[in-house]
């Protein structure tokens, strides 16, 4: 599935990267936004990291949040 933004078709992975560049996002928010399971979100994050993108993680109040370092 692709999300439509600004007249361009964007893949879910591209949507994930775009959202992570905006700041810290909890895993649960990413799951709901992309309609993915937790393991799919974590797998996509791992894949993004392997491509050299600096993905950071932190624990806040029992939740894991992610972002792409600026």
Provide an overview of this structure:
This protein is α+β, with helices and mostly antiparallel strands and 70 residues long. Helices cover 46% and strands 31% of the residues. Strand 1 and strand 2 form a beta hairpin. Helix 2 (27-34) crosses helix 3. Residues 1-7 have low confidence and may be disordered.
Summarize this entry quickly.
This protein has helices at residues 12-22, 27-34, 38-50; strands spanning 2-5, 8-11, 25-26, 55-60, 63-68.
What is the topology?
Blueprint: E1 2-5, E2 8-11, H1 12-22, E3 25-26, H2 27-34, H3 38-50, E4 55-60, E5 63-68
Antiparallel strand pairs: 1-2, 3-5, 4-5
What are the main properties of this structure?
alpha+beta, 70 residues, 3-stranded antiparallel beta sheet, two-stranded antiparallel sheet, 5 strands, 31% strand, 3 helices
